[in-house]
Amino acid sequence: MTTTISAHEQHLPKRKFTQEGRRDDVLDDCPTDDCPARWVLEILTTKWTPIVLYLLHSQSPMRYGELRRAMPETSKKVLTETLRGLERDGLVLRVDYEEKLPRVDYYITELGEGLIPIIQSLKAWAEENIAEVLARRTLYGPAGRAASREGAVTTR
Questions:
Q1: What is the rounded CA–CA span in Å between residue 87 and residue 136?
Q2: Which domains does the chain have, with CATH numbers?
Q3: Among residues 115, 104, 113, which one has the least CA distance to residue 66?
Q4: Pairing mode, if any, of strands 104-108 and 62-63?
Q5: Is residue 63 within 8 Å of 104, Cβ to Cβ?
Q6: d(C-alpha 10, C-alpha 148), whole Å
Q7: Is the dihedral of CA 82, 36, 50, 96 positive or negative?
Q8: Which residues lie closer than 8 Å to 107 by C-beta, 6 or more apart?
Q9: C-alpha 49, offset from chain centre
Q10: Tens of each residue's pLDDT in the chain, 156 residues
Q11: DSSP state of 106
Q12: Three-state SS sequence of 5-46
């Protein structure tokens, strides 16, 4: 079997892979779908969840309309589904005041607050590295792919 390693990948740490080619050391302790770490990763990798949690952390309580204005790129349906999922998981509290004029506030819970340091770390990493990521995306275009193949090192 031949493995091709590009010149810039030679300095990367050696990683273990399974026979199927998946990383063997990623979530070693969590091989199944019911692993708690997989649950947290699913939450954090959902497009709008970290944004909703961060907004509620910064401005809690917020009403639905305030969240919509803070996230104009999302649809009503997606925001509603996101809030329901966060409420179901205990990360957000929905308080319906049952007044004549409907009023519902959303709060981040203590459990949800526990994810904020992780979200802040991801935000800091993104701010620090976005320029390099975008530059590499540009290089990866058709010309970039050809250039990376030319600089590749083949090992056996």
A1: 38
A2: 36-140 (1.10.10.10)
A3: 104
A4: antiparallel
A5: yes
A6: 13
A7: positive
A8: 56, 60, 61, 92, 93, 95
A9: 8
A10: 444 444 444 444 454 545 544 444 555 666 666 777 777 888 888 889 999 999 999 998 999 999 999 999 999 999 999 999 999 999 999 999 888 888 899 999 999 999 999 999 999 999 999 999 999 888 877 665 555 555 555 554
A11: E
A12: EEHHHCCCCCCCECCCCCECCCCCCCCCCCCHHHHHHHHHCC
Query: Which residues lie below 8 Å from residue 12, measured CB to CB, with a gap of 6+?
Result: none
27 in Cβ contact with 42 (< 8 Å): no
Other CB atoms within a 10 A radius of the CB of residue 115 amount to 19
Handedness of CA 103, 108, 111, 115 (dihedral sign): positive
Predicted model pTM: 0.67
The CB density around residue 86, as the number of other CB atoms within 10 Å, is 25
